[in-house]
């Protein structure tokens, strides 16, 4: 019996000793370095953080690769005053030069003088270049018909305009000038009025094509005859007619005659 008691007492005593040693073992506290483990410095932690963030930053900073066929990327349009993008068709502020303000008035007298000078130069050139000429004559007939407006055009350009109260009882040459041989158009525009009642008027435009031979000149004669009776008969008879006839005659002749 004494031996079993000693053995049991020894076992109990060994358990107490082990328990005491276990409780006496030091435990590391949070935030304090564990003995035997190297402590990382603040600089090495920052370097590691920068190393991890560098690839992602480089990836976000580099632009996506453009395809070979797309070409250069155009710059974004500048915002408009309202906040929206400007159309590429809008001109830039400095695209057009400032030519100054347009003239407020036109000097018609100077313009007409320039036109007259230009016509004179053209006439001088024509006289030098061509020996062929065209001569235009005019005659008017009518008891009560009066000329309110009369113009003669050569190739759709006015070459003569009748003065006020014009009347040609006999054949009157109104135009003569050198022209190129070939076909030309001679036009007569006439407005007539009735001296018995000025409200009765008529306008007529007659266009004639002539041919000037290369070795000849051409004489063109017009006869304007007005036998209208509407100005005197319509008020009394309630009937009348306009009868204005334009007759043209052309004849070639040798130059210098």
Order of helices and strands: HHHEEEEEEEHE
Uncertain stretches of 5 or more adjacent residues: 3-9
Largest beta-sheet characterization: 4 strands, mixed
Q: Average pLDDT across residues?
A: 75
> Strand content of the residues, in percent?
25-35%
Number of strands: 8
**Can you give the helix content as a percent range?**
25-40%
- Sheet with most strands: strand arrangement: 4-1-7-8
Structural class: alpha+beta
Distance between the termini: 183 Å
Computed Rg? 57 Å
Total number of helical segments?
Answer: 4
Overall body shape = extended
Spell out the blueprint of helices and strands.
Layout lengths: L1 H23 L17 H20 L46 H22 L3 E9 L3 E10 L2 E5 L10 E7 L3 E13 L2 E16 L4 E10 L3 H8 L6 E10 L4
Parallel strand pairs: 1-7
Antiparallel strand pairs: 1-4, 2-3, 2-5, 5-6, 7-8
